[in-house]
Amino acid sequence: MLSVNMLGEAPNVVLSLVGELDMVTGDKLVEIINALDLEGIRSLTFSLGELDFIDSTGVGFLLGCYKRCKAQDIWFHIENDNPDIEEILQLIGIRELIKSQ
Amino acid sequence: MTFEQCRAQIETLSGGRVALRKYEEYQLDNDSCEIVREFAIASKQDISHIRSEVDQLFEKVIPCWRHVRWPILLTLSEAVTNVVKHTPGGRLLVGRHPNGLCFHIIDNGHGIDLERIPLTLFGKGYSTSASMGMGFPIMIKYVDKITLYTSERGTILILRFELDSECM
User: Fold this and answer.
1) B126 falls in which pLDDT band (50, 70, 90)?
2) A2, A25, A57: best mutation site toward chain B, by most B Cβ within 10 Å?
3) Against a cut of 0.90, is the pTM above it?
4) How many A×B Cβ pairs under 8 Å?
5) B86: number of CA atoms within 13 Å, CB side?
6) Beta carbons within 8 Å of B110's beta carbon, 6+ residues apart
7) Quick one: pLDDT band at residue B112, thresholds 50, 70, 90?
8) Between chains, do A23 and B44 touch, taking CB under 8 Å as contact?
């Protein structure tokens, strides 16, 4: 199960992910991003503090969001304080990618 | 590349932690893994279902499960997701061995071409479908021993985790 809570509004949107992000729930994230009016957004932050689980497919969905943001000059950020999740983000390389913005 | 060349290359690249075997060499009882549960892998809903069931199963019987669960559930998720993404389906056998846990992931796909096995296992970002291609690299990072059997009949992965004796 995945819940996506919007904590901040345009132009600086914060989306808090709660639950699990994987192949099962990733489509829900895509639906929510598709429903956002990206025109009015300057930054998009994903807060992963309440995420119980993420795998490489889940990180892949975040990467897809990053690419959409990059295409529209929206600053993309990930907030996370879970060391297990941080290890996966580092291993897959998305942290390095975001740094290059 | 011959099978023996591929086997040797994989052993070298993995420092002995990944072993390639011929499909016919797979036998249920050749790794002292006592199977305790079996799951079908048929759809993507099985990915989260399996994680949840395995989590609940071992929480009751492994004293230190809270400290070891993350890499084990992550690895399982990667392996089961691979079956869902790349094959018509398969099954997961969950088991225990004297020093830890073991998982057999058996699929009904077409197997991995010999020439592609090294890249599939060790190449970050390599995938034959629209995916991250990080499943195997993640498995190799966290699993103590992986045995891979593959042929046109499908692929079998045996994942072995060693746990501290106090944990068991």
Assistant:
1) low
2) A57
3) yes
4) 50
5) 22
6) B87, B152, B154
7) very high
8) yes
